[in-house]
Amino acid sequence: MLPSLQIGLPGAAELVILLLIFGLLLLVPLVVSVFIYRDAADRNSSHALAWAAGSFSAAVLGGFLGGVVVWVLYFVVRDEIGPGGPSGTGP
Length: 91
Description:
The protein has 91 residues and is mainly alpha-helical. 70% of the residues lie in helices and 0% in strands. It contains three helices and no strands. The radius of gyration is 20 Å and the shape is elongated. It starts with 11 loop residues before the first helix and ends in a 10-residue tail after the last helix.
């Protein structure tokens, strides 16, 4: 085997781990923001995109705790947005 193929990059394993962590730190807020958008859109909210963008930006810029605050706030006020369910009839 050629010696040049056996040489590894210094810190390559640590770099992969850091990239996975940063990827998860972006993936979780993205997924929750999509769920918030879909729920608000199902409730016929005119601010569905604003809720999704606000929750994603709060989680990314304000840290995970900032995102959790917005997510809980949406959960508390989502009944005031409109009736839930795909048919829009609500409970």
